[in-house]
């Protein structure tokens, strides 16, 4: 079972980063892979159990469900319900922590999932680099443009 762990330091206060990340339906405004996103059944994007349906720029459609969200701890967890990508049982956790030396943010993003043995390396690289690392870089740009 692949276990992907990525983290970074952002030169922005934790509250500023959290205001962007906590919007479970907002990733189409900052992640370069996401073209459009909507929450099913007109639920609130911070309601535990809500499902976001989104399209990637390549036309693929995915569905993810919000499992946990804590404003106090600045964390959220979600799982993948439907995807054309050959991975299963995907559960991810995002956590922000303040870096008090300079009012910065430590962003931890991790997941576990299963996939076929022959797809393990390719899918692991895709999650780590095309999703997580690309997300880190995109948030940096997004926060800089918003400042």
UniProtKB/TrEMBL annotation:
First and last residue of the signal peptide: none
Classification via SUPFAM superfamilies: Bet v1-like
Q: Which Pfam families match?
A: Polyketide_cyc2
Name of the protein in question: Polyketide cyclase
| Gene source species | Bradyrhizobium centrolobii
